[in-house]
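Project channel, design review

CF: Before we commit to the Amphiprion percula constructs, I'd like one complete example in the thread so the newer folks can see what an input/output pair looks like. Taking Adenylate kinase 6.
RD: sounds good, go ahead.
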Amino acid sequence: FLLPRQLYDGYDEEYQCPILDEDRVVDELDEKMVEGGVIVDYHGCDLFPERWFHIVFVLRTDNTQLYTRLESRGYTGKKLQDNVQCEIFQTIYEEATEAYNEEIVHQLPSNTPDDLERNLEQIVQWTEQWTKDHN
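CF: and here is what came back for Adenylate kinase 6:
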């Protein structure tokens, strides 16, 4: 599901994107997360409670490919530079290992369509195994 508009707290002109009200986002998702079976796709993790997740996947991309990918999406200036720097310095991976038990954080390459297929297969296998082990 997509987040409702009232969970935004303005617009960031520099990055040209809405600003999330993190407290309202967590409040909105909490009930759904307790029910389980939810996948959260986000470019950060330090706002989400540790109790929500059994596994965390951080997708990694070669910097040259990432630059080209983001540029083709219309990213420019600071937004483009900051996103590439985040990848260079492994910012999201480090945030994930600080926010959650390091044992549940996994890096997956995301450079090619083949990587996408392998990642999907791995996530499906993990989900099936976890469900089997916990039911």
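RD: helpful, thanks. The domain at 5-134 is CATH 3.40.50.300 (Rossmann fold).
CF: The helical segments are 22-35, 63-72, 77-88, 91-99, 113-134.
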